[in-house]
Amino acid sequence: MTExxxxxxxxxxxxxxxxxxxxxxxxxRAGELVIAHSSLSALGWVNGGAxxxxxxxxxxxxxxxxxVMPSQSPHLSDPANWSAPPVPETWWDTIRATMPAxxxxxTPTSGMxxxxxxxxxxxxxxxxxxxxxxxxxxxPLAAAVTREHRLEDPFGPGxxxxxxxxxxxxxxxIGVGFDACTALHFAEHRAWARRPLVREGAPLxxxxxxxxxxxxxxxxxxxxxxxxxxxxxxxxxxxxxxxxGEGRGVLVAMRPLIDHALRCWSGERDG
Length: 271
Description:
Number of strands: 9
Helix content: 25-40%
Mean pLDDT: 95
Distance between the termini: 44 Å
InterPro entries: Amioglycoside_AcTrfase, Antibiotic_NAT-like
Radius of gyration: 19 Å
Order of helices and strands: HHEHEHHEEHHEHEEHEEH
Keywords: Acyltransferase, Antibiotic resistance, Transferase
Family: Belongs to the antibiotic N-acetyltransferase family.
Catalytic activity: a 2-deoxystreptamine antibiotic + acetyl-CoA = an N(3)-acetyl-2-deoxystreptamine antibiotic + CoA + H(+)
GO molecular function, one term: aminoglycoside 3-N-acetyltransferase activity
């Protein structure tokens, strides 16, 4: 969406202060642990763009709060699995041999949006070690949230999502739907612990040397399956909705949402 289009659909300039007021009205409180997913364009014309959104979140949470965002870089993966778009099989070995190694300080996000990309480089933020499915956090609990991130199980036990669940975090959707709610992959892990495995690989720095590391991960669900789960959770009174700028926000506790997802999928689970 062009900036002119953004301006035309915005009644009043959206500012860091106005977003902070909207976040407080939605129910976000100082000192919380929250994972945020966002679409900057959904908010209307924001004075300061992604930086203003991050400042609003940090101002609302205060110094005792911890902000987490997904900072995924799915391009650091085995080209044999690429489908959007695929690359010729004759390229695969070259790609594996030359792809830059994951560096939590410099590897850009991909498909996460402008807010997450800006937050990735925020002073003091800590990023987890998974090359494709990392999370970034800032605040007193940032080190605890990002400390462990198993290569073979990026959304299950031993992941930032598991730590967020253990610490009773809340989930904030800023202008996005539940299809963007990464936390529901944690419920997916619990519902289908025996999903088919996919062979993967990524370039990592090990003992100071770049290496292509092969591993296997469980095949993820299509995130479109998360949409009816979220809708029924809100209908059941799990979470709150409200305006954020020119868009809408959703704030929901992670534990009740995960429990609700497991109930929704109870007839399909593998035990």
